[in-house]
Amino acid sequence: MRYGVFSDVHGNLEALKAVLGHFESEGVDAHLCCGDLVGYGPDPEACLGLIRSLKGLSVVGGNHDLAVAGRMDLEWFNPYARTAAIWTRAHLSRQALDFLEGLPLRVETSDWTMVHGSPRKPPEEYLLSPAQFQDCRSYVKAWPLFMGHSHMPLAFRSSAAGTDVVFLGDREESAAMEGGVPAPAAFNPGSVGQPRDHDPRASCGVYDTKTRVFRIARLSYDYRLVQGKIREAGLPEYLALRLEYGQ
Ligand code: ZN
Q1: What is the whole-number distance in angstroms between the Cα of residue 157 and the centre of ligand 1?
Q2: pTM to 2 decimal places
Q3: What is the Å distance from ligand 1's center to 8 Cα?
Q4: CA 177 to ligand 1 center in whole angstroms
Q5: Are 216 and 171 spatial neighbours (Cβ–Cβ below 8 Å)?
């Protein structure tokens, strides 16, 4: 089974199309979306439509999805995120809002687990350090764990030798077995619509359950077109600029 894993689309339709084109050329069997489908970007409705049509889709809600749906307080957001969440809510259909309202915070199967941020506090906590990963291990039943939220392509691995975190950039990493069972590992595919690792290309991953390899792909897209749409929509200028710098 090969999964197309993606996260933090944030209403960026051009970046999403690049990623879905990659998944199609890879012939993935199913899709895992780790949340934050909307917020920041100018095309929330179109992105939701495309994501919902994907085959074998499993999806969790991110903090932006919850805020737009009225399930999380906007007080926690910075001014850019707050402005964008209010704009997004005003530009979504009732049907789209109902979909966001119904999103689960965690999906668990016998082969993997998926959350937006961390398994301990799914929509809010950023999983970034080895110590934190080790501390969160008891909240996961089936490895690997897939998550997003930090907008950084990362791999976490734990074994008897210790715990480490690897910045993936555009590389691959594999999940190890230990004593016949999957060793704790977590993969973050980075962000489709607003990468923050100083590489403006859209980020996503493909996970193969047979080889246990998670491979990141970085895809160029027309971010200038998205910048134009952000400006036309009257969203904050910073949201347009950051796409160019990947931050
Ligand atoms: Zn996000």
Answers
A1: 23
A2: 0.96
A3: 5
A4: 30
A5: yes
